[in-house]
Amino acid sequence: MTKEIKIDDNLIIGGEKFSIIAGPCAVESEEQMQYIAQFLNQLGIKIIRGGAFKPRTNPNSFQGLGFDGLKILKDIKDSYGFKVISEIMDPRDIEDAYRYVDIYQIGSRNMQNYSLLREIGKTDKPVLLKRGMSATINEWIKASEYISIEGNDKIILCERGIRTFENYTRNTLDLMSVPIMKSETKYPVLIDPSHGTGRRELVLPASKAALAIGADGLIIEIHPEPDKALSDGHQSLNFNEFKILVNKIKSMKKSLNIY
Ligand code: PEP
Ligand code: MN
Predict the structure, then answer these.
(1) CB under 5 Å of ion ligand 2: residues
(2) For residue 42, with 0-12 CB atoms within 10 Å meaning exposed, 13-18 middle and 19 or more buried, which class applies?
(3) Residue 259 located in a structural domain
(4) How many whole angstroms from 99 Cα to the centroid of ligand 1?
(5) Measuring CA to CA, which of 79, 87, 185, 196 is 20 to 30 A from 213?
């Protein structure tokens, strides 16, 4: 059975569970996060995502709010009881970020940042390791070993799509990595259908496929007004679209009866 990653005494990722994590690509403001938090809380979502350090291709694009963003996440966490996941890019930030996040995210661009992997491996917090956009399965497995070799075995893998010749979608979502990683490692595997497709209208079909192929959950970008998002708006769902997705996935899970 897939390893259960304990997020706290009452919350796990892996095992028999199918987890849905959601939130904006980037933390943009206190108001934005309050609004999103209220909505996700009503839907029963337990883990909220939001980037404070954004790895943008263009250095002139919005880079995230940094520690101010993490503080906003911590406020949300304290007032609603959410667990928080956020990306850390610089090994020097790991220690200071420790008290703000419940799960460290290692982004696609940093999957082979071995000093970052080793430093996070020295902590005792769960870590979501995204697949590098050009990484083979084997490179991804080895990256996870850089974390576990330092003592941290609380690893959650996340397939977020790889670069191929196809450019209709932002990435090609390699769903086959789910059964492969689940047999090659003991760790849960989440699917990120937002980065995996780069297109809002493909997030639901990709999520259904993720459930059917045995993934342990989803991490999805949402925004109250996707067209105004400071990053990744075109792949973010609005509240209504996300609500439909959650309901569809829940009923599909019941009828599939495979878990
Ligand atoms: C993100 O989750 O917003 C992100 C930057 O993802 P990735 O590292 O997969 O590109
Ligand atoms: Mn994003």
Answers:
(1) 25, 232
(2) exposed
(3) no
(4) 22
(5) 87
To which residue do tokens 């892996």 refer? 14
Identify the three-state secondary structure at position 210: helix
Residue 258 Cα to ligand 2 midpoint, Å, equals 31
Q: Tens of pLDDT along 205-252?
A: 999 999 999 999 999 999 999 999 999 999 999 999 999 999 999 999
238 is a domain residue? yes
Kindly state whether residue 207 falls inside one of the protein's structural domains.
Answer: yes
pLDDT tens per residue, range 24-39: 999 999 999 999 999 9
26: left (phi over 0), alpha (psi -120 to 50) or beta: beta
- Is the beta carbon of 235 within 6 A of some atom in ligand 1? no
Report the pLDDT value the prediction gives residue 257, as an integer from 0 to 100: 75
User: Can you name the residues that pair with 221 across neighbouring β-strands?
Assistant: 23
> DSSP for 27-94?
---HHHHHHHHHHHHHHT--EEE-BSS---SSTTS----THHHHHHHHHHHHHH--EEEEE---GGGH
> Which structural domain, as residue segments, surrounds residue 230?
4-252
pLDDT at 1: 83
Q: How many domains in the chain?
A: 1
CATH of the domain at 70: 3.20.20.70
Is residue 153 included in any domain, yes or no?
Answer: yes
Ligand 1 centroid to Cα of residue 53, in Å, is 10
Neighbours of 144 (CB within 10 A): 23
